């Protein structure tokens, strides 16, 4: 994905046919690792193609919120709810223990009222 993004950035900056060196410069500028083989694959696949047309052709495939999702709910056994309740109780106990570890440390801002 970062190679496609770098290609798009180079294209948007005015380069009609970005090169592997362009992608390397963009990716290394942000401290990312660079794989020359992947960059070559991206450049070769998009070479001599208008990126705006490629993007326009891909929009129908994105279907943000247009798809249908089926969710099936099943009744949880009673044993699972008891286990969940026990976990919640353990978390409450852990939180109390953590607060005790800071005993007096919160006083630096004017008292224990937090």
UniProtKB/TrEMBL annotation:
GO-annotated biological processes: cytoplasmic translational elongation
Which Pfam families does this UniProt record tie to the protein?
Ribosomal_60s
The segments labelled Disordered in the record are 64-114
| Bias type Acidic residues, positions | 99-114
A GO molecular function annotation here is:
structural constituent of ribosome
For bias type Low complexity, the affected ranges are 69-80
Q: Which UniProt keywords apply?
A: Ribonucleoprotein, Ribosomal protein
Gene Ontology CC, one term: cytosolic large ribosomal subunit
Compositional bias segments (type: Basic and acidic residues): 81-98
The family line of this record is: Belongs to the eukaryotic ribosomal protein P1/P2 family.
* Name of this protein: 60S acidic ribosomal protein P2
């Amino acid at each position: 994905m970062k190679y496609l993004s770098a290609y798009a950035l180079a294209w948007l900056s005015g380069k009609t046919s970005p090169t592997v060196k362009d992608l390397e410069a963009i990716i290394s500028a942000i401290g990312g690792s660079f794989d020359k083989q992947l960059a070559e694959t991206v450049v070769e696949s998009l070479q001599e193609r208008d990126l705006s047309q490629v993007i326009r052709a891909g929009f129908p495939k994105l279907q943000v919120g247009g798809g249908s999702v089926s969710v099936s709910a099943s009744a949880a056994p009673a044993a699972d709810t008891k286990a969940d309740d026990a976990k919640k109780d353990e978390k409450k106990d852990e939180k109390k223990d953590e607060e005790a570890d800071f005993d007096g440390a919160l006083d630096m801002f004017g008292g224990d009222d937090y």
